[in-house]
Amino acid sequence: MENESKPTIIIADIQFLIIEGLKSFLGERYRIAGLVCSKYELQEALGANVPDILIIDYSSLDFDGFDDLKAIRKNYPKMGIIILTNSLTRNELIEYNRSGIKNILHKNTGADELQACLHAMQQGRKYYSGYILDLMFDLDEKKSMADESVRQLTASEIEIVRLIASGLTTKEIAGKKCISFHTVMTHRKNILRKLGVSNASELILYAVRKGIIDTIEYHI
Q: Tell me: the pLDDT tens digits for 107-129?
């Protein structure tokens, strides 16, 4: 009866040491309802018995994408989910939040942070481990620096970026804008310097990511 009163947990990860470490650490306070290492095993475990908490390294399992995670969230809305990860991108963080998941731990997390995350989740609060917060701040800083670089471009330079992306040569850009070849070259050098890229290919990819251009054509 005592064991049945404990909150239940399923651990989903492909790393044996992670699974065994969590099982050993959590075993006294929680009832381990399942240890799984694939999408199929997780679906089987959830179908048999929905736990109070799912601790999962989502990126390591054989899921097709975030739609699978959203489906789990939708099908088991009362189940708390804690994400384990070795890395985190801005898009992944956005997708986790869109899925309603706001408890994320880096795999180098210590016991105190794991306990704090479990407590916060059970209280309906979000929790990011310190390393995840550092990653988020780093992403914000890099984004801020990148946005500042874009703001440094003049209207004429932005137009030249778009002309380069459309496949025009330096000579063709000069003719289209009725300026000298040398002036266009100067603009190109300034643009590359301001954006911190080294060639036209990097420039175009950067411009797409930052919304300077919407669509591009590649010319070989």
A: 988 899 999 999 998 888 889 88
Same domain, 17 and 104: yes
Asked if residues 176 and 187 have their Cβ atoms less than 8 Å apart, the reply is no
3 state SS of 168: coil
Long-range Cβ pairs for the range 21-27 (8 Å, 24+): 22/55, 25/111, 25/114
Q: For tokens 């088991």, name the residue.
A: 76
pTM listed for this prediction: 0.62
List, as one string, the DSSP characters of 78-134: TSEEEEEES---HHHHHHHHHTT--EEEETT--HHHHHHHHHHHHTT--EE-HHHHH
Q: What is the pLDDT of residues 188-207, one digit of tens each?
A: 888 888 888 888 888 888 78
One domain, residues 124 and 195: no
Q: Is the same domain home to 29 and 110?
A: yes
Q: What stretches of the chain show up as alpha helix (H) in DSSP?
A: 16-26, 39-48, 66-75, 90-98, 111-122, 130-151, 155-165, 170-177, 181-195, 200-209
